[in-house]
Amino acid sequence: MRKKITIPDILQMKKEARRITVLTAYDYPYARLVDGGGVDIILVGDSVGVVVAGHDTTLPVTMDEMLYHVRAVKRAAPKALVVADMPFMSYQTGIEDACRNCGRMIKDGGAEAIKIEGGTNMSHVIRAISAIDIPVMGHIGLTPQSIHRMGGYKVQGRKDQAERIFEDAMAVQAAGAFAIVLEGIPAKLAADISAELSIPTIGIGAGPSCDGQVLVIHDILGLCEKYSPKFVKRYAELAPVISEAVKCYVAEVRAGEFPTEEHSFS
Ligand code: KIV
Prior knowledge:
Blueprint: H1 7-15, E1 20-24, H2 28-36, E2 41-44, H3 48-51, H4 63-76, E3 81-85, H5 95-107, E4 113-115, H6 123-131, E5 136-141, H7 147-150, H8 162-174, E6 179-183, H9 187-196, E7 201-204, E8 212-215, H10 217-220, H11 238-255
Parallel strand pairs: 1-2, 1-8, 2-3, 3-4, 4-5, 5-6, 6-7, 7-8
The chain binds 3-methyl-2-oxobutanoic acid.
Residues 24, 43, 45-47, 85, 181, 183, 204, 214, 216 line the site of 3-methyl-2-oxobutanoic acid.
C-alpha cells in the first residue's frame, strides 16, 4: 500500500534520483483524484486566484481564501504531502507577519509545508520560517507575484540574468528550504541548478532535468481554454465534455425528459 509522503521522503527521492510528481489542487473533489492518482505533493497554489476565481493575476488572493482551499484539500489527501502557497503580502512585510501567517497555514489549514516566492531577497524570511520548523518550498525564476516588476509572464534567467537566478537558488537552499520550484527559466540553467543543489528542484517551464515537475491541474485537464502556455501538456480535454453534459441537461429539463420516475421519490 502507498505510504504517506513526508519531507524526509522528498529529500530521499532526490538522493535516489527518483522523480518527484507535483500537481495543484484547490478543493476536495480534485484533491481526492490527484491524491488517488499517486502524486507525491499536492500544491495548493495561489494560481487558484486565476484558474478558479477568474482574476488576471495571483495578486488579489488572500490568506482567508488560501486557508479555505488548503483545508478542503487536506481533508481529501491522506497520502500526498500538502504544500500551501503563501499569498502576496502575507510574508513580504516582515519576519513576524511571515511566521504568523505561515504558522496559520500549518495550524489552521493543516498544510505540512508552505511555499514562498523569491530568492536572495527572501532568504531572511525563509531562514526564519525554517527555524520554527515550518518546512519551506522556495520558488524562483518567473515568480507570478512579481508580475509588475517582470512586465508580464516572461521567461527569466536568459543571458546575463542567469547568474542572478543561480545565486537565488543557492540562497534559498542556504536559508533552509527543503525544495525549490524553478519556473519559466531556460532548461540548461535549470539543469545546472539541479546538479548543484542538494535539495530537489521542481520544474514548471524549466525543462526535463529538474528533480520533479509541477503543473496546474486545470491546465493538464484542458479546462483553461483561453490560453495554454508552451510548457503545459494537456492530458485530457475536459472543457468540451463538461459543456456537452451541461447542454444535454438543459435540453432534457426543457423537454421534460428529466427527471423521470427513476429520479423521483414515491
Ligand atoms: O500557484 C501555483 O500554482 C504555483 C505553481 C504553478 C508552481 O505557484
